[in-house]
Design brief:
The protein is about 25% helix and about 30% strand. By secondary structure, it is of the alpha/beta class.
Length: about 725
């Protein structure tokens, strides 16, 4: 089966359906009459597309807001279509670039009018015309494999080949679609770098001591800059044979320099590229132009080494004006060896920063909350404290017989129950507290499990993703306990609640071990389990199923909402899953329901599993009892807004009238098909600029009336005075 996008006529409506079988996405172009797509040559387009077809129609429409750019057939920019606006174009040849869940281009010859509103987009042609449709997937995977021996200098050569994946060294590289996936790395007896890897010549080098910690730390920067990594006595950045920055005297200070430089270069590339193919009205450019007199047009055409030098000369004050949290920081063990090398290309592909654990550094001392979490996990408290309420129970089969919220006493346990209570999670010394950092999420590479964030597992990145025939999202929800059935029903309802998404939700109750084994083997994008796990395995009506006994699972993402599900989640990732949300302790049912429902909502709004878990950890009652194992970048589906956002609202006490002003700030959460370096714009009337998708956006003033007009009837996540809310309920209270 081809993994390229496919075209087919809509069923039950008139139009064309574009299907991405890899990312399980589809995008529909409605037409004024039935269409029959005919295959055509993808080379007709100035931009790369994988497949193309032709249709005849007099009108195209999309059911939700889709930004687009109008170009000449050669790709030169003519106009940006933002919201809301109505624009007329005279008869001519046009290339329309749609910023949709699948990358789509439309070629048309004739006059047209475009009416873009918050409710959708309508393109009217004067007469019935031929529209050529081209599509490509946002999916990116390694194109080659590098073999490295266990030698830091060999790994330097491998990292120097990572920039072969860049599609350009111009400022356009800030677009994630123009940064390809670095080559895969595997350990072997000798260094083998495939001849077909074409590394750009930028004149930029990074010298560091030949130790693994330094190599891992500089890898993201070397990839983005197209730099060669060389062994040296000191750490330095060189452009055209001239040292332009000393990076630090130890691996920690080098990490700080890499973070500052990578942020600086990416943000300035985003601003500079407005002189090129995408002349966006960018908020960050307006801000910078009040702090600096950079000639962005000259920078756009400058060689990479010259451009880097100019970027480093920009004042820290100017950069602070557009600074924002990074999307992810990945940590590795102190004095790391070669074990992380095979995960490094996947970390770099997401443009995550890399830091080496510092045992003597105060920043690695756990925070008070991390210390308390660690102590609870190490001692494995027998009677966790529930939230307020009556009649709640633990999702632990071994504990719930004796411990209930309203019994008021701690019952004794048998030695066997004590043994079972400690199973399913890492033992003493098996946890790693991560430092407080300026990032949306964190990840860890190492034997231990972080008490927050994601434990990266190599197997998660190596599984083949099942293809979808029609772009639908397959979801399985399983519940094996009658007292937990409420989550089964609420989760199934949440997963089936988007009109623009093709979702197939299957709900199963009280399954046997054989039935659960079969369900794990079936292809699904999300497997949501509600019930008892307790470290021994999944409790079923006829016994226990241990995930370690599974030959395979075709569940892509797994949510194991049961007690002590850590080890079972790790086994599922090894068996075929890409990511699993797992628990590190015993869970009170009401708190677990809150976590399960919140994760389901965030997944179905397009948040990656890593970002969703960060939000749940911060804003739910027992979210700190969960972590992710596997790949934190996995997503269940796409956001209705292309890029998932969280709106932070500061509402003054007692200020609740319909016209009272509210301070609102949008936080963007980059995902792989709309990653760091993309742009976004909220469609509230008060906001007219694009923003760089890298965290916090511009703060603006609006009212409850304004929010209600924008968000009803859709549901979006909000943080209101530090609490997680949803627009469909909060705006109606």
């Amino acid at each position: 089966m081809s993994t390229h996008p496919r075209f087919r006529s809509l069923t039950g409506a008139t139009g064309l359906d574009v299907i991405d079988p890899i990312e399980t996405r589809h995008f529909s172009l409605s037409t004024d009459s039935p269409v029959s797509p005919s295959e055509t040559d993808p080379d007709e387009f100035a931009f790369p597309v994988a497949t193309a077809c032709r249709i005849r129609t007099g009108r195209l429409s999309f059911s939700y807001a889709v930004p687009m750019d109008v170009r000449t057939p050669e790709g030169d920019h003519r106009s940006s279509i933002d919201l809301p606006m109505t624009t007329e174009f005279p008869a001519d040849e046009y290339l329309l670039e749609l910023h949709s869940p699948i990358k789509i281009y439309l070629r048309v010859d004739g006059a047209m009018s475009i009416d873009a509103t918050d409710d959708g987009v309508v393109i009217e042609f004067g007469d019935e015309v031929t529209v050529t449709v081209g599509a490509r997937s946002y999916h990116s995977s390694p194109a080659a494999t590098i073999t490295v021996p266990d030698d830091p200098e060999a790994m330097m050569e491998a990292v120097s080949a990572f920039p072969s994946a860049l599609k350009t060294t111009s400022p356009e590289r800030a677009w994630p679609t123009l940064r390809g996936h670095p080559p895969r790395v595997e350990r072997g007896d000798e260094l083998v770098i495939p001849d077909e890897l074409d590394v750009p010549e930028t004149g930029i080098t990074i010298s560091v001591p030949p130790e693994y910690g330094y190599v891992y730390t500089v890898a993201p920067l070397a990839y983005y800059l197209g730099a060669e990594v060389l062994p040296g006595e000191t750490a330095s950045l060189t452009a055209d044979s001239e040292e332009i920055r000393h990076l630090g005297d130890d691996v920690a200070s080098v990490g700080e320099s890499v973070e500052e430089i990578l942020k600086r270069v990416l943000l300035l590339d985003c601003v500079t590229r407005t002189e090129g193919l995408y002349p966006d009205d960018l908020h960050e450019r307006d801000v910078l132009e009040t702090h600096t007199d950079l000639d962005f047009a000259a920078l756009y055409d400058a060689p990479p080494a010259d451009r880097l030098g100019a970027y480093l000369a920009v004042s820290d004050e100017a950069m602070a004006a557009i600074d924002s949290p990074w999307h992810r920081i990945t940590h590795v063990e102190e004095d790391p060896g070669p074990d992380p090398v095979e995960l490094l290309p996947y970390v770099v592909n997401d443009l995550s920063l890399v830091r080496v654990k510092q045992s003597s550094d105060d920043q690695w001392s756990p925070t008070e909350s991390q210390r308390q979490t660690g102590e609870a996990l190490e001692s494995f408290v027998r009677s966790p404290t529930p939230a307020d309420g009556e009649g709640d129970f633990l999702r632990s089969a071994s504990l719930r017989r004796s411990v209930r919220r309203n019994d008021g006493m701690e019952a004794s346990e048998s030695p066997r129950e004590n043994e079972n209570t400690a199973r399913g999670v890492p033992g003493e010394g098996g946890y790693m507290p991560l430092p407080d950092v300026d990032a949306l999420e964190q990840a860890w590479i190492g034997d231990r499990t972080p008490v927050e964030g994601t434990k990266l597992l190599k197997e998660a990145f190596e599984h083949d993703t099942p293809d979808s025939e029609d772009g639908s999202v397959e979801i399985t929800v399983v519940c094996n306990d009658a007292e937990m059935r409420a989550e089964l029903e609420s989760a199934a309802e949440i997963y089936d609640d988007r009109d623009d998404l093709r979702a197939d939700v299957s709900s199963e109750f009280d399954v046997t071990t054989d039935e659960l084994r079969d369900l794990f083997a079936e292809e699904s994008d999300m497997f949501h389990f509600v019930g008892h796990i307790d470290g021994l395995g999944f409790q079923c009506s006829d016994g226990i199923l241990d995930a370690a006994t599974l030959d395979e699972t075709n569940a892509k993402t797994v949510l194991l909402n049961g007690c002590r599900s850590h080890d079972q989640g790790v086994e599922l990732v090894r068996a075929g899953a890409s990511a699993a949300v797992v628990s590190l302790g015993d869970l009170w049912n009401e708190g677990a329901v809150e976590v399960g429902e919140t994760l389901a909502k965030l997944f179905f709004h397009g948040f990656s599993i890593g970002h969703a878990m960060t939000i749940v950890r911060e804003y739910t009652s027992i979210g700190k009892d969960y972590v992710v194992v596997g790949d934190p970048g996995e997503t269940l589906t796409y956001s209705e807004n292309i890029l998932p956002c969280m709106y932070h609202i500061n509402q003054e006490t007692g200020c609740c009238s319909e016209t009272s002003e509210l301070a609102v700030e949008a936080y963007s959460y980059p995902i792989r098909n709309c990653g760091i370096g993309s742009t976004f714009r909220t469609h509230l009337p008060e906001v007219s600029h694009q923003h760089i998708a890298v965290g916090a956006g511009q703060e603006w003033e609006t009212t409850l009336d304004g929010l209600r007009a924008e968000f009803q009837p859709i549901s979006e996540p909000l943080i209101v005075n530090g609490e997680l809310k949803w627009t469909d309920t909060w705006l109606n209270t």
